[in-house]
Design brief:
The chain is mainly beta. The protein has one domain: Beta Barrel (OB fold (Dihydrolipoamide Acetyltransferase, E2P)). The protein is built from two helices and nine strands, in the order H-E-E-E-H-E-E-E-E-E-E. The relative contact order is 0.28.
Length: 107
């Protein structure tokens, strides 16, 4: 089990998806450009292509882990991780309940 200090180490922020590109990777993925407000814009690779079309993602406010080390995925670099829930064959993005500016801290 994780302790509370491990949870507090995560920098969770709201992010607005401002661009969605199909990625040329082994698994079906999108390359998302996400606005994190004062933290800037980040490229995030996401394996959600089988569950969302591009139009459904554009301008969506999601929850992002903003303090992960960049990770190379194929020819791309991912600079964060979006949060999603999975149940059976369904995957749903975690979102804010209402409008918040990009980069709002999750507490």
């Amino acid at each position: 089990m994780a302790n509370i200090s491990e949870l507090l180490d995560l920098n969770l922020r709201t992010g607005k998806i401002i661009e969605v590109e199909e990625a040329n990777t082994k698994k079906p993925m999108y390359k998302l450009t996400v606005d994190l407000g004062e933290l800037g814009k980040r490229s995030i690779m996401a394996g959600i292509k089988p569950y969302y079309d591009r139009e459904a993602l554009l301008n969506k406010t999601i929850i992002v882990v903003a303090n992960l080390e960049p990770k190379k995925i194929g020819d791309y670099v991912s600079e964060g991780m979006l949060l999603a829930a999975e149940s059976g064959d369904r995957v749903l993005l975690l979102t804010a309940d209402g409008e918040l500016p990009p980069g709002s801290a999750i507490r």
